[in-house]
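During the reporting period the student researcher (J.K.) took over the structure-prediction task from the postdoctoral fellow and processed the backlog of single-chain submissions. One of the processed entries is reproduced below for the supervisory committee.
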Amino acid sequence: MTEAMLTKSRWMQGGGPEIEIVVSSRVRLARNLMGEAFPCLAAGPQNRAVIDRVITSAENDPALKSFSRLRVEELSALDKQTLMEKHLISPYMAREAEQGAILVSADEAISIMVNEEDHLRIQAILPGLQLEEALGEADRIDDIIEKSMPYAFHEQYGYLTACPTNMGTGLRASVMLHLPALIRTRQLNRILGALSQVGLTVRGLYGEGTEITGSLVQVSNQVTLGLTEEEIIANLHSVTCRVIEQEQAARQSLLDKNRAALADSAWRALGLLQYAQVMSIKEAVSLISDLRLGYDLGLIKSINHRLLNELLVLIRPGYLQNLAGKSLNESERDLERPVQLRKALERYRDEGEEKVSPGSKEENKS
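J.K. obtained the following structure tokens:
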């Protein structure tokens, strides 16, 4: 693992609209090259030829020349897991795509997966609620690539993809939401049911097949055919705004009913993250969620979203082991996790952030 792969992705830096609830916005475009078999049907030499075409095209284009280029077969299982934990590649690519490659921009806002389910998966991921901006970034890269490599396209069905559910625009847009208040007030299941009725689906932190942990919910579109890119984005944006309103109302209700308990939960989370000696990933995710809620409600001020996003990634198995510089089994990771959490918190304080103790700010007074 190179040092560059342990840098902080742009979405991890925080900032952006509605950052208190929307962790990130992501847009992904599925594309296939004209005249080439889908990756799942192609032989090894064919898939390698596609990789060579894409990399050569990137090397010859000023807009893509600076992108890092990584061939999957040259990456360790740990490297692939770390890229997945940073949301730069999909779980499927980390697990299945041996004859693949990844192109990544310097700030990691753009990644291009080569030979995942499709020849190309062009992804843009930005902090906060920035769906239109993410679509603009993805479309820009899409147009650049298509100039040198025409796509498989049908006048009636749109962009042709390996999975029929991606045909049409080939667009999957998603938002990562932090919804602790809706979960605590037991309103989330009702909202999830309503989302499915408007063509949206809900998954966990790493997409399909992952459970909801740490109150983090990924909401994305299900329909790609029969709608324009703009209509898909507008629909998801509109629904997200309604979910934000309901989460904000639930947070205010919790705050009005028991402000002291919420503050206590946030400060206890910070204390454990700073001083615990053994910690499972499930506990760490829960504590970071409690801390994030306390910060967003103004009950604690010794942190920020950049730190919270960093903590959310560094506790993951692949990233954690790369930080430690060695392979670790589950028990060893539970010992290493608090070590890396303390280092991150100390680094944050050393950068000049104000250290706050409980009760020292008016926000902590009842």
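The committee noted the following: Residues 229-275 form the longest helix (47 residues).
J.K. will present the remaining backlog at the next meeting.
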